[in-house]
Amino acid sequence: MLKFFRALALFVLIATPAYADTATDYIKPTWNDFIKILIEFKALDFKADDALVDEYAMMTNCDLYASTAGDEFRWRTARAGLLETIQKLGDNQLTKIRYDTPLQLTKYDFSNKLFPFTARTSIDNVNSFLMTTNNEFKCGRGQVQYLPHDFRAVTKNPITIPGIPMSPEDGETILRTMDMMKNTNRTIYTRFSMHVIDVQPLLRYTKHDKYGNETPYYLQGHSPPNPTQLDVVVDSVDFFVDPYMEVKIYSYKP
């Protein structure tokens, strides 16, 4: 605990601390990262659908797509090369991701020596984490329509954490630190670190617009389970007193 107080004191003395990533093994996934995870688990069959390859090109190399896609002969060659690259991404092993969210503490519980969370931000039987990305991405005249853009990480083992255990002395120190930071809402910053263990294949369906035109789309079943589900195991839940996530005050291991 002495180490914690020293770190806490150091943080308070620094007016504008530089950002430091405390979980370098776990990334905050971008849209591109999510698609790589789908490739890792073979959830999308790029070989069977040129539209998926084209959209991946828009996301990862817009300049190439914009300058080449209009020439079907040049683009046919470029697409074949990109497909080879996509297939090699299956060895990427990008599976460790994180989900960051602020929570709030309520009044300290002296009986249980615990700083509980507010009812609105409680961690009670939590088993899913919604992660949304940009769904209006465009590249020249091309627009990504078929690749999924919303994702939900789901664990089979729900997590319940009633609050942050600490002594009354430590609780008072946390509260005084928040006062110095002008954190009047008692906000703490929480990181769920997890790894993906499976993604069910996304199947290709076809829908028709009012003019009868067909458009393919990809789902994990017939009923729209959008966002796309990622099966995960939560490895740790870490709590920080600062928005830069430098000063950890508690770590929970499921």
Describe this protein with a few key phrases.
single chain; 254 residues; alpha+beta; 6-stranded mixed β-sheet; two-stranded antiparallel ribbon; 28% helix; disordered N terminus
Describe the 3D structure.
Strand 9 (203-208) and strand 10 form a beta hairpin. The protein is α+β, with helices and mostly antiparallel strands. It has helices at residues 2-13, 31-40, 50-60, 62-68, 72-88, 168-180, and strands spanning 96-104, 114-116, 123-132, 138-139, 142-143, 150-161, 163-165, 187-198, 203-208, 214-219, 228-240, 248-252.
Give a brief outline of the structure.
The protein is an alpha+beta fold and 254 residues long. It has helices at residues 2-13, 31-40, 50-60, 62-68, 72-88, 168-180, and strands spanning 96-104, 114-116, 123-132, 138-139, 142-143, 150-161, 163-165, 187-198, 203-208, 214-219, 228-240, 248-252. The protein has one domain (2-11, 21-252).
Question: What is the 3D shape?
Answer: elongated
What's the pLDDT, averaged over the residues?
A: 85
Distance between the termini: 22 Å
Oligomer: single chain
The total number of structural domains is 1
Number of helices: 6
What topology emerges from the helices and strands here?
Layout lengths: L1 H12 L17 H10 L9 H11 L1 H7 L3 H17 L7 E9 L9 E3 L6 E10 L5 E2 L2 E2 L6 E12 L1 E3 L2 H13 L6 E12 L4 E6 L5 E6 L8 E13 L7 E5 L2
Parallel strand pairs: 6-11
Antiparallel strand pairs: 1-8, 2-7, 3-6, 4-5, 8-11, 9-10, 11-12
Helix pairs in contact: 3-4, 3-5
